[in-house]
Sequence to fold (360 residues):
Amino acid sequence: MRFEHESLPQRVCFGAGEAAALVRAEVERLGAARLMVIAAPAEAGLAEKTTVGLPVAVRFDEVVMHVPVEVAERARAAAARHEADLIVSVGGGSTTGLAKAVALTSGLPIVAVPTTYAGSEATSVWGLTERARKTTGVDARVLPRSVVYDATLTLSLPVPMSVASGLNALAHCVDTMWAPRADPINSAFAVEGIRALTSGLPTVAAEPGGLAGREVLLYGAYLSARAFSSAGSGLHHKICHVLGGACDLPHAQTHAVVLPYVLAFNAAAAPEAERRMAVAFGTASAVEGLRQLRSAVDAPRALRDYGFGEADIEAVIPAILKAVPVGNPRPVTAGELRQLLRAAWRGDDPQVIMAEEGGA
Ligand code: NAD
Fold:
């Protein structure tokens, strides 16, 4: 074994029903006296409950997916005007993303309270969108100092969004297994993440009001983000990044749809990763494990259901080909990418990708 692994410095606090107490403890620990609370209008109630009694200097609720630069500028100006010394973000990946945009230029510490399974809270990756172009980068300043996970805050997340978001987390795990900086430590996080998400997703789908499944999903989402943040973007994330940026597709649903095709495409060329994922899914093969899981939770099925048109396929191929990681287990040609995207666009059985491989 020879590898180099960097662990990111962050406190993680877990406790169902304890968000307010845990956030208070983190704010005190960090010595903050003027909070900026970022939460979308839909999560305003959750944010209020979570920050009750704390010294809030400003609340900012203009949350937009993929963080447009103009919104980031307004949030930065509000933080400066109100002399905020810490940000508390309560919401999904879009909300955490806005908090990161403020931290990127101000250096303000973040206490993140995630309400979806996107996992942005455990990465030092930021993203900003300017004139429909998304730029991402890595900066230690944007990594939240503390994360507070409280499963009661996810009870209101509707089942279809919970499923899409949980599969987004699963995609972090699967893609980690062949990502550019995959190593034994982030792979261990990834396979445990697959195990947790595979157990939590059907529980939440069957019993949305129960806490047990929601807690397991948050745990799996954290592991998935730790794995992904350390291993970097593999083929799956490169494809979804181009699709999301070029066609403005919904983030979690796009990941949920594309994942089985990338897994089917790479699986045979990555036998060790495939075997470990199959064990984590508890099935004979990883492809079969994901198939069973997706069918149990009625997963998002086709890109055409989310605004991706057949004509978009040709348009995205060159950008994806340019982004394919050099170490992907299997080389990717334009023809294979076309097949993969056509299958994902139609929602075909992912086995067609494997069959094509056999015939190639
Ligand atoms: P999101 O934050 O946009 O939330 C999706 C929807 O769910 C929104 O309408 C939101 O109001 C609603 N919602 C959130 N929590 C809820 C709750 N508890 N109850 C009811 N409704 C709730 O979507 P997302 O999938 O969480 O995040 C996507 C964004 O995060 C994308 O911009 C993506 O690029 C980014 N992201 C970044 C990283 C990173 O490492 N930087 C990682 C993952 C995702």
